[in-house]
Known about the structure:
The chain contains 11 helices and 14 strands. With 551 residues, the protein is α+β, with helices and mostly antiparallel strands. α1 runs antiparallel to α2 and α4 runs antiparallel to α5 (350-369). The radius of gyration is 50 Å and the shape is elongated.
Amino acid sequence: MMNDRKPGHRLAACPACAEPLDPTDRFCGACGHALTAAEPAEDRPTIALAAEPPAAAAEPPVPWPAPAPRDLSTQTQHPGDLPSVPASSGPAAQAPAAQAPASSGPAAQAPASSAPAAQAPAAQVPASSGPAAQAPAGQASAASQVPAAAAQGGVRGGQAVAEDVSAAAAGPAAGIPAPHGPAEPAAPAPEAPAAPAGAEPWPSAGAGEALRHDAPAAAGGEGAGDYELAAPDPRVAAAAQAKVCVACRAGRVDDDGYCENCGHAQPRERDHMERELDRVAAVSDRGLRHHRNEDAFAVSSTALPDGSPATVAIVCDGVSSATRPDDASAAAAQAANASLLAALPRGTHPQQAMTEAIVAAADAVNALAQEPGSARDHDPHRNAPACTIVGSVVAGGLLVVGWVGDSRAYWVPDDRSAPPARLTEDDSWAAQMVAAGLMNEAEAYADERAHAITGWLGADAYELEPHTAAFKPDRPGVVVVCTDGLWNYAEGAEEMARVVPPDASGRPLHGARVLVGHALDGGGHDNVTVALLPFAVPQEGAGSPTGGPAA
């Protein structure tokens, strides 16, 4: 059975080669182009899911998107139906300028949307003269409302436009009126956060007012309606106060004392200490080989009962082989200094006061071994805290020194043509060898046992034998009080006099720095501590710096 053949195309010529065509041709005779593939589709306009009657031809064109007259039977999302959107209660004629023109019907009494998004020109809707005008003025489809609101970045009643889009997608469940039926109640507006205890209640947003979620300003105070500034972040302040590495000058120092950038250990408080008074100065340094500074010093000044000044310098060296050597030296220096400051103003003779100060220092060091939880409680075979001590007092024309151990005191006159002198004798193996005549000084101090001390302050010391001596120099000079970290690089009195600056009496702090630098330049194998006490001769003074103890 044959059927009538319909034309395969409506083309007069081939679109590929322009060959004339017959209406019944299905392929081009010249190039073989399939003519049915080029057949234009019929004009079948797309019909929306929620069909709306086509717009009347007589209506003038409106800005994009072009809305059509609405039927109450269509399910259209309107801005006024969204939850949490305050609407004005006045007539449509009092609504914002962007609302729909008032109609001649009952729509003139309909509420108008007060949202800023409704002010966009694209959201305007022509008025209807029929019952459909009962819809809220300024309404449009959700697709026509979102672009206009998004273009202005509008916020409706304190909520972003994105919330309106999500509400539109919710359909009738969000309170959208169903077709030909009663409208369901709108979803309640989200509640503002509760106000803190004791604070005023949060203000509620009225019509056309943005909702705020910050605390209100004090009643009647300045800045009402302004947002309060946030409190400063304590982490920022902590970062501003963080220490910077002394080595790389860039890394931050951790709480454990090491640089996060280069790993360099940072100086501790005791790694380098300096102090200067009117008539005395001292400097202490960790050195270049030790991991901590186990030396300590104390310098002070007071007055004798007759009002004349008295200057004090104490230097202590912790014994590295003992436990807590740094604590021992610090305790001894503080105790000796306190004892002298208490005895000298009472009129105690400086030499007797020095002996009492050494005893007080020994008691302070012994107390460290008796503290509960000390290292000796866990290891009874370890040595108790121990240190050496040397001190000097310049008062009433006298120069008094006292010591236990191998820390020393030197006399260096301002007139370098006069002989200097060492004022102390070491409590050491080398000193005993020299005193016994078994070795000369050069041989004894060249021995590896030279620095083995035979006297110290500590709970395990054999017996306490404080050494003291008093001198009456007949010329001005300076007293050098130091640990072996310095005199190892200037053992003899003449060597010490050569490294002491000529102006040390007038600039004691500068002189002490120079001496510490001399030890560091020599290798800095030990902690280095030195105190300088200038000595001024009284007008009636006499005596010799190398003489024996005063009677």
